[in-house]
Amino acid sequence: MKTLIILAHPDLEKSKVNKRWIEEAEKYLDKFTVHKLYEAYPNEIIDIKNEQELIEKHKGLILQFPIYWFNCPSLLKKWLDEVFTDGWAYGKGGDKLSARNIALTVTAGIDEKNYSKNGKYKYSLKEILIPFEITFDYCSANYKGFYAFYSAEFEATKERIENSLKEYIDFIKSI
């Protein structure tokens, strides 16, 4: 079974890193299904049953997004709230994410040193992403961590992006 990549980028055409990563992932259609939330739901009305069935048809799940205000873009938050429902993702009979491998691939606009105890934001990206880890744990999924591209806003040169592709693909293949 393939791994499902949920891409949540509100302006993918202007993206440098996420756009290139997805172009690379789409070369492996035998391994990945790419689902672009902002294309699928431009009006932000989510087809919950369809999304749940899509997840069920895949062995793994990757949420890919740029960090927005130390969180995910709003449509992904709405997607999580509406798709990970009681009786499906957790609670009585809610076992559809149980033992499923889940990971994050994220881009952060600022460099890694600012995501540290002594940095500008005082917290690591791992700490900022803890709510996702807790959510996946609550749903009995296997959280496999995250892969990040730092300085995506200011230092995302073509060379740096291209150099990240092998690690990105290796990471998502491991899920």
Automatic annotation (TrEMBL):
What domain of life?
A: Bacteria
Gene3D superfamilies from the xrefs?
Answer: 3.40.50.360
Sequence ranges assigned to domain Flavodoxin-like fold in this UniProt record: 1-169
Assigned keywords, A-Z: Oxidoreductase
An example Gene Ontology molecular-function term: FMN binding
PANTHER family from the entry? GLUTATHIONE-REGULATED POTASSIUM-EFFLUX SYSTEM ANCILLARY PROTEIN KEFG (PTHR47307)
Q: What is this protein called?
A: Flavodoxin-like protein
